[in-house]
Amino acid sequence: MRVLRELTWVELKLFAREPMTVVFVLVLPVVVLYVLNGVFGDQPNPGVWEGHSPVDFYTSAYVALVVATMGVLSLPVHLASYREGGVLRRFRASALPRWTLVGAHVLVAVISGLVGSVLLTAVSVLGYDATLPRDWVGSAAAFLLVTLAFCAFGSFLGLVLRTARAAQGLGVLLFFVFMMLGGAGPPREVLPDAMVTLADVVPLTYAARALRAPWLGLPWDTAATTVMAGMLLVSVLLVAWRSRSE
Amino acid sequence: MANAIEVEGLRKRYGGLEVLDGVGFEVAEGEIFGLLGPNGAGKTTTVECLQGLRWADAGHLRVFGHDPRRDVRRVRGLVGSQLQESALPDRIKVWEALQLFATIEGTGRAWEPLLEEWGLAHRRNAAFGDLSGGQRQRLFIALALVGAPRLVVLDEMTTGLDPAARRDAWDLVAAVRERGTTVLLVTHFMDEAERLCDRVAVLRGGRIVGTGTPAELVRSTTSEVRVEFSAPSAFGLDFLTGIAGATTVTRRRTGVVVQGTGPLLARVGHALVERGLEPPDLRVSLPSLEDAYLRLTAPLDDPVSS
Ligand SMILES: Nc1ncnc2c1ncn2[C@@H]1O[C@H](COP(=O)(O)OP(=O)(O)OP(=O)(O)O)[C@@H](O)[C@H]1O
Ligand SMILES: [Mg+2]
Question: What is the domain extent for residue A58?
Answer without folding.
Answer: 2-245
